[in-house]
Amino acid sequence: MPLIGLGTYQIRDRSTIFAIVDAALESGYRLFDTAQVYGNEEHIGDALRELLPKYNLTRTDIFITSKLSPANHGANKAKKSVEDSLTKLRTDYIDLFLIHWPGVQKISPTDESNRRLRQESWHVLEELRDGQVLKSIGVSNYTIEHLNELLTTAKTTPTVNQCEFHPHYPDFPLVNFCRQHNIHFQAYSSFGSPAFKQNLFHEAIVTEMCAKYDFTAAQILLAWALNQGISVLPRTSNPLHVKENFKATNVTLSPEDIDLLSNVRSDLTKVKYCWNPQRIL
């Protein structure tokens, strides 16, 4: 799995999808991250089918990630929803498929049935992985408690846990837990989510490092994760930013600067800009 991929959260416009996929392929991206709830699997499938030949690429040259909607948890819905994703993505296999959220849509976060239904979902994904429809399976937004629960019942250890991670919310206990259990930790919202990215971009230490390394704030924030072996999924609807973000793979931060960014809020309350799975039983 490539360490950098194109995130597509909140991008549903067909022409925009085609433009950013084109820019991504040209820049060197080979990982494309989507989800059932993003509502763009079909556009991404169409874009890849049309644009791969332009760059002399085939399906096996790229890595596609999608995710199970919270509305599709459970044995009765999960398998059908994966089949729908395959159809929309115009492919007969998905490289990585994740449970997007540990809770179930329209069920109270404290309802015990969340546990039962997400376990059912995982067993369905295991079956599909055994059948090679899904090359690998994992989770997203799982806490240490959710992972411990899963590891007691799963036949297959999740390959990936995809979670919010940035200098304002550096969840190193979760990162370390994943490493101890051979689960790759993948970061989303490296900029603190679209609505709050200026909070990180204007962080004094980030600004200083932009001048020091002559890279943009986005590139510094992505490099902070990449330099720690954490993969990233920068999301943008701007083709120019797609290309700029990929250059983060060329940024090497000093260990001291990585530590500075990791501890930028050491004396402050850490800020979670996205949804919080801690409330899900």
From TrEMBL:
The keyword Oxidoreductase applies. GO terms for molecular function: oxidoreductase activity, acting on the CH-OH group of donors, NAD or NADP as acceptor. The record marks K67 as: Lowers pKa of active site Tyr. The active site is at Y38. Residues 4-262 form the NADP-dependent oxidoreductase domain. InterPro entries: AKR, Aldo/ket_reductase_CS, NAD(P)_OxRdtase_dom_sf, NADP_OxRdtase_dom. Gene3D superfamilies: NADP-dependent oxidoreductase domain. It comes from the Eukaryota. Keywords: NADP, Oxidoreductase. Substrate binds at H100. Belongs to the aldo/keto reductase family. This is NADP-dependent oxidoreductase domain-containing protein. It comes from Plectus sambesii. The lineage of its organism: Eukaryota, Metazoa, Ecdysozoa, Nematoda, Chromadorea.
